[in-house]
UniProtKB/TrEMBL annotation:
Lineage, opening ranks: Bacteria, Pseudomonadati, Pseudomonadota, Alphaproteobacteria, Sphingomonadales
Pfam annotation, one family: AHSA1
SUPFAM superfamilies the UniProt entry points to: Bet v1-like (SSF55961)
Family label: Belongs to the AHA1 family.
Domain Activator of Hsp90 ATPase homologue 1/2-like C-terminal: start-end pairs: 14-157
Organism superkingdom: Bacteria
Name by which UniProt lists this protein: SRPBCC family protein
Species per Swiss-Prot/TrEMBL record: Sphingomonas limnosediminicola
Length: 165
């Protein structure tokens, strides 16, 4: 499914599918792992329905701040299988004005989840870009390190949820 303008991250997370999905789709959990530490999510809005809002504010110790974050649009939700959203559109599928920094180019994320057996989850995140320049910009911003780090943090939180279940 990935094309030449896309970036892909695949991991097998050592946590069960139900809890990985819960960690990914509940704002109070998403806030805890979605930014690579020491960066953090300080604001989040998530409405898991097609046309719903996906907005975060990420801040970091180097004065990095996305501001209130350009609101993205949830495109597809298939329970415990798939979640996709885009920054190109806002809630209700309204076209977005692009911001600065990591919000300077439109991107669509398609994240899939599958039971990998033995309490593990196959996790795949694909970031779709409109052209090679946007893909390269995203890659140079640290896509693989950043998204890899947060996949590890997602796994850690899902495992924590298992302990506290």
């Amino acid at each position: 499914m990935a094309g030449v303008f896309d970036l892909v991250l695949e991991r097998t997370l050592n946590a069960p599918l139900d809890l990985v999905w819960e960690a990914y789709t509940k704002p109070e959990h998403l806030k805890r792992w979605f930014a690579p530490r020491p960066y953090e999510i300080t604001e989040i809005e998530l409405d898991l329905k097609p046309g719903g809002i996906f907005r975060i504010r990420m801040v970091g110790p180097d004065n990095f701040d996305t501001g209130h974050g350009t609101p993205g649009c949830v495109l597809e939700v298939i329970d415990k299988q798939k979640l996709s959203w885009t920054s190109a559109l806002g809630p209700g599928y309204r076209p977005n004005e692009m911001g600065e920094g990591c919000e300077s180019f439109p991107m669509t994320a398609i994240v899939t989840f599958a039971d990998a057996g033995d309490g593990k989850t196959a996790y795949k995140a694909v970031a779709l870009h409109r052209n090679e320049a946007d893909r390269e910009t995203h890659e140079k911003m640290g896509f693989h390190d950043g998204w890899g780090t947060v996949a590890k943090q997602l796994e850690e939180l899902a495992r924590e949820l298992a302990v506290n279940a």
